[in-house]
Amino acid sequence: MHDVKTLNVRSGAFVAGLVLAACTARGPKTPEAAFARLSEAVSARNAEDLFEALDQDTRWSWMTVQKCQREAFDVVLSNFPEGPDRERQLRHLEAGATAETAAELFAARMGTEALASLAGRLPEPPVFTVAGSEAATPARSGAALLFRQIEQRWGYAGFSSAAEEQKRRAVADLELIKTSATDYERARLRGGS
Predict the structure, then answer these.
(1) Partner of 114 at 20 to 30 A CA spacing, among 80, 120, 142, 174?
(2) How far is residue 43's CA from residue 158's CA, in Å, rounded to a whole number?
(3) pLDDT for 192
(4) Distance (Å, whole) CA 27 – CA 5
(5) In this structure, how many other beta carbons lie within 10 angstroms of the beta carbon of residue 69?
C-alpha cells in the first residue's frame, strides 16, 4: 500500500512538472524570439498571430474583455426589456460575445490598426537593451519597441496600455449592465408584469 501511495505522489509530481514545462514552453523564451514572432505576424499581416506575440498582461486584458462582454451580453439578453437600449447594448457587446477567442476579438477590434502601427517600424536586426523583465529595441521610427517577460514568456508590450483601458471599460460596462438589469427587474416586479 505504501508503494502505491508513493508512486501516486511521484506520478502527480511528474505530471505537474510536465504541465509546468508545457505551459512555459509555449511562449518565446528571449526578447529576440518574441521579436521574431512579432515580425512574422506583422509581415503576414495576421492580427491573430500578432495577438500571440503580445506580452501576457496584454493578452490577459483581452481575455478579460472577452469574458466580460460575453457575460454582459447574456445579462442584456436575459434581463433588458425590448427596446432601443437593449438593441444598442447588444450591438456594442456582440463582437466580444461572439468571438471564439480573445485573439479573434483583438483582431476584430484593433488588429488592422495595430498591424499598421508596426508596419515599417521593425528594425533588422533588433538590438535589445534588457533591464530585468523588460527589453527594448530602437524602432526604425517612433518610440522604441518594448517587450516584457512574465512567467518566463516574452512578448511585445506596446499595446498594454490600450488593452488595460479596454479591460477597465469592459469591467465597468459589465457592472453598469448588472445594475441596470437589477433596476429593470425591480421595475418589472413593481409593474406586476
Answers:
(1) 174
(2) 17
(3) 62
(4) 35
(5) 24
